[in-house]
Specification:
rod-shaped; 8 helices; 77% helix; 2 domains; 0% strand; single chain; mainly alpha
Length: 242
C-alpha cells in the first residue's frame, strides 16, 4: 500500500516533466485542486470512521476478555462454596483457562482462536455441574447459579469466536488506495522535483499508510503488534483452585 501511494506521488512528478506548459497553468491547478479537495475530504471522513470502528472493535474484545476472567473466578468461587465434591470441576475449569491463555497468546502464532480450548471443555464443565447432587437449599441455589454462569461464559466465548471473523473489507481498502494514489499524484503533478518534495511525499505516504496499518492491526486483537492483554486471564488463572 505504501509503495502504491508513494509511487503515485512519484508518478505525478514524472507526468509533470512530460506535460506541456499549457496543461500546467493556473486554471489547471485550480481544477485539480478543487477535485482533490473533495477526494481528500472524503478520504479523511472514511479514515476517521474506520479508526473509530476498529478502536471500538478492539475495546469490545478487550472487555470480553476481562468479562471471561471475571466469570471464571466467580464460577470457581461458587463451586468452592458448594463443597469439596466440585474439586474435579474446578480443576477442569482451570485447565480450560490455562489452555485458552496458551493458545490465544501463543508466541509462535500457530493458533489464534480464542474459543478453541473452551469449546472442548465447556460442555464437560456444564455436564459435571448438572450431575452434582445438592443436599440442601443452599447447594441447590449454588448449583443453579453455577449453571447460569457456565452458560454466560459459553455465550461470551462464542461471541469472541464470532467476532474474530471481523475485518476491513478488501474492496474498501482497494478504494482507499485508489483515492490515495490520485491524491498523491495531484501533489506531485504541479511541483518541480527536488529532495524536499520527494522527502515530503515519502513522509506523508508513510504517515497515512501507518494509520491504515493501525486500523488493520486493531481488527486482529489476538495477533500482531497491538494485542489484547492477557493479564486479566492470567490474574484469574492465579486465583483459580485456591
Amino acid at each position: 500500500m505504501f509503495a502504491c501511494v508513494f509511487g503515485g506521488g512519484l508518478l505525478g512528478i514524472f507526468l509533470h516533466s512530460l506535460l506541456p506548459n499549457e496543461h500546467l497553468d493556473s486554471d489547471s491547478k485550480e481544477a485539480v485542486r478543487l477535485g482533490m479537495a473533495l477526494v481528500g475530504t472524503t478520504l479523511a471522513l472514511v479514515l476517521g470512521l474506520l479508526i473509530a470502528s476498529s478502536k471500538g472493535f478492539y475495546d469490545t474484545q478487550n472487555s470480553e476478555v476481562t468479562q471471561v476472567a471475571a466469570d471464571v473466578v466467580l464460577l470457581d468461587r461458587v463451586l468452592l462454596h458448594f463443597g469439596p465434591e466440585t474439586k474435579e470441576i474446578r480443576e477442569l475449569l482451570r485447565s480450560s483457562v490455562a489452555s485458552m491463555v496458551d493458545v490465544t497468546w501463543a508466541r509462535d502464532g500457530s493458533d489464534k482462536t480464542p474459543s478453541a480450548p473452551f469449546a472442548a471443555n465447556e460442555g464437560a464443565v456444564f455436564s459435571k455441574i448438572q450431575q452434582l447432587s445438592p443436599h440442601n437449599d443452599n447447594q441447590r441455589f449454588l448449583q443453579s447459579q453455577a449453571l447460569s454462569m457456565a452458560i454466560q461464559l459459553g455465550q461470551t466465548r462464542a461471541l469472541m469466536f464470532a467476532q474474530k471473523a471481523s475485518s476491513v473489507p478488501m474492496p474498501l481498502l482497494a478504494v482507499l488506495v485508489f483515492w490515495l494514489v490520485l491524491l498523491f499524484m495531484s501533489f506531485g503533478l504541479f511541483v518541480r522535483p527536488n529532495v524536499v518534495v520527494v522527502v515530503s511525499l515519502f513522509a506523508s505516504a508513510l504517515a497515512v499508510c501507518a494509520a491504515i496499518f493501525l486500523i488493520l492491526e486493531m481488527y486482529q486483537p489476538y495477533g500482531g503488534l497491538i494485542q489484547v492483554s492477557s493479564a486479566p486471564l492470567r490474574a484469574a488463572l492465579a486465583q483459580l483452585g485456591q
